[in-house]
Amino acid sequence: MVERVNTDILLFDLDGTLVKTTIAVEKAFGKLCDKYGLNLDELLKFAHGTRTTEVLAKKFPMIDNTNEVATIEFETSIGKDYVEFVSLVPGCFELLNSLQTMELNYLNKGSNRWAIVTSGTSQLTHSWFNNILKSINKPEVFITSSDVTKGKPDPQGYLMAKNLIIKRLNLKNDAKSIVFEDAPVGIQAGVASGSIVVGITTAFDKQLLIDAGATYVVSDLSKVKVIKDDINGIELEIDCL
User: Fold this and answer.
1) pLDDT band at 191 (very low <50, low <70, confident <90, very high)
2) Catalytic one among 15, 182, 220, 229?
3) H/E stretch holding 235
4) Is 154 a catalytic residue?
5) Is the dihedral of CA 39, 154, 52, 213 positive or negative?
């Protein structure tokens, strides 16, 4: 089923939505679980889409995470020790490149109708735009775990990103937004922010994403095309599962 959807703002999760990091993250958590005697499968049910700081606090209280030193160390290891297991979600480059190219026609350089809202640290998440996404300019609005006090499923990050874009582009306060997410907790955050949510089945199956509140579900970003991106807004074509 192909749907045409109009919006003003696009908000993207990063890990699992734009960049396939699931295997790398699981290997990093597997190492921690082996060290501290935890069950990896049980841990991952909670960890996916959740800020590392919250995972460490709940599941690894024995680890000293003062000033988030352990969080930074853990996420740095993902980008350093397991980078060979990281790749782009199919269609990611084409989708972001379309937005970047079209927006140059009517927005000031550096301005975007799209943003990143991730549970990852700034060190890790910005690094993806310095290597596997280096040909795409980082969006002006880039929300990481250090920018919020409440992680997903709380909508704080998505609301923050949406409001920043509204102010910077002088959009109406009731501007429409679409969230792209791969994790149920992220989908719940998107729904709570008042956005339409597109779920991506890179980590969870279709029904779980629908149950979490996704309006549309796609296999990957190759199923999402930008039909237009101009001063009047964005039109997408979504080939749904």
Assistant:
1) very high
2) 15
3) strand 233-239
4) no
5) positive
Q: Are 74 and 52 in contact (CB under 8 A)?
A: yes
Q: Going by C-beta distance under 8 Å and a sequence separation of 6 or more, which residues neighbour residue 175?
A: 8, 9, 162, 165, 166
| Full DSSP string of 47-91 | HTTS-HHHHHHHH-TTS--GGGHHHHHHHHHHHHHSGGG-EEPTT
Token couple for 15: 């890990």
User: d(Cα 96, Cα 148) in Å, to the nearest integer?
Assistant: 24
Is the dihedral angle over the CA atoms 185, 189, 194, 199 positive or is it negative?
Answer: negative
Bridging pattern class, strands 19-20 and 196-200: unpaired
Mode of pairing for the β-strands spanning 87-88 and 177-181: unpaired
Please say if 13 is a catalytic residue.
yes
- Residues 124-155 have pLDDT tens digits of 898 888 888 989 999 999 999 999 999 999 99
Cα R_g (the chain), whole angstroms: 17
69: exposed, middle or buried (C-beta count within 10 Å: 0-12, 13-18, 19+)?
exposed
CB atoms within 10 A of CB 110: 11
Question: What H or E segment, with its residue span, contains residue 27?
Answer: helix 22-36
CA dist., res. 18 & res. 145, Å (int): 17
The encoded tokens of residue 54 equal 């919250």
Q: Which of 8, 13, 182, 220 is catalytic?
A: 13
